[in-house]
Amino acid sequence: MNKLLLGTRKGLIIYQNQNGKWKLTDTHFIGIPVSYTYVDKDSGIWWAFLDHGHWGVKVHQSTDEGTTWEELKAPEYPEGEEVKEGVPASLKYIWGAAKSGDKVLLGTDPGGLFETTDNGKTYSLNRGLWDHPSRKDWFGGGRDNPGIHSVCVDPRDENHIYIAISCAGVFETTDGGKSWKPMNKGLKADFLPDPDAEIGQDPHLLVISPSNPDVMWQQNHCGIFKSEDAAKTWQDISEENGPANFGFLIQVHPENEDMAWVVPGVSDGVRVAIDQKLQVCRTDDGGKTWQSFTNGLPEDCYDIVYRHCMDYDGDSLIFGTTTGNLFVSNDLGENWEAISNYLPMIYSVSLV
Fold first, then answer.
1. Per the domain annotation, does 36 fall within a domain?
2. Would you say 244 and 264 are in contact if contact means Cβ atoms under 8 Å apart?
């Protein structure tokens, strides 16, 4: 992979690896927030989801790696649908995407999952999830409405899908989306009257281990959690009295189910780097222990790293921050080099 797609507060920024160095080569949709980018590795299609302050959500697609773009109609909630009693449902944000067989699945605010089988020409709202009896009890976390930010498809079975909703929790379907069930046993929501509530958990990002899809990880509002039984139960693997705890992103090594990275921050209302020192934490033993790495990362900084802002491929582990810093490591996160310190706020990082 030699291209890097950055969804930022001021457009889609493209970097290319040229002789081992990342160089900025292009910018699209300049001045418009790009909430998320998705690359369909089967077709090679690039998707860009825009969060235009005046015109709302926009969907653009490129079949030639960004040389040209086509605007598509964005998904629409059916007339009469409500987020809650008296609150009409309308598309506010596209926050995640994944491929399931011949479908592309889009996670949205206010909590609906849309499907397209024709690359965005038409969409359908997944009724199994939208009509779940718990849905009107879901609530917003960092956004006013509940939002689906993680869509994870079991690589062994396209009908086996997990989503994560802030705030509701993890849900699973084994029948391609006809029915869904919550999978939150062992999670904690210390902001609720009942911290063990089945509905109301706040995962920040959910990922499947590619090398063993029964092993799942999530960075959660209340810590770092891991499941070794396909989300049936979750264990808190946060670092006791250490930095690896609150954060937004989690990245798992594609060939090692026990290796994962987080970028921690001070929790809740503060949300800056711990002690104003940016650091990356890595576990090599499935969360039993964590190491913190700071070499090449700044002190006296107020950065935090959003949920979709790290990606890994081959020799490169790259992440971007809320103050426009972009860093690369070629040794599993132990040493870092700045690619840029002058970008807009970064919302997503994708290596392609």
1. no
2. yes
Residue percentage of the chain with pLDDT more than 70: 100
Give the model confidence (pLDDT) of 85-137 as tens digits. Answer: 999 999 999 999 999 999 999 999 999 999 999 999 999 999 999 999 999 99
pLDDT in tens, 222-257: 999 999 999 999 999 999 999 999 999 999 999 999
Mean pLDDT of all residues in the chain?
96
Residue 50 lies in a domain: no
Task: Give exposure, 177-193, as e/b (b: 16+ Cβ within 10 Å).
Answer: beebebbbebbbbeeee
Query: What is the total count of domains within the chain?
Result: 1
Domain containing residue 325: CATH number: 2.130.10.10
Q: For residue 53, is it within any domain?
A: no
d(C-alpha 249, C-alpha 238), whole Å: 14
Q: Kindly list the distances between the CA atom of residue 156 and the CA atoms of 97, 212, 310, in Å, as whole numbers in the listed order.
A: 18, 10, 24
0.90 surpassed by pTM? yes
Is 275 within the bounds of a domain? yes
Provide the domain limits for residue 175: 85-341
Cα distance between the two ends of the chain: 5
Amino acid present at 125: L
- Asked whether 181 and 168 are in contact (CB, 8 A), the reply is no
* Rounded Cα–Cα distance for residues 172 and 177 (Å): 8
Q: Using an 8 Å Cβ cutoff, are 11 and 28 in contact?
A: yes
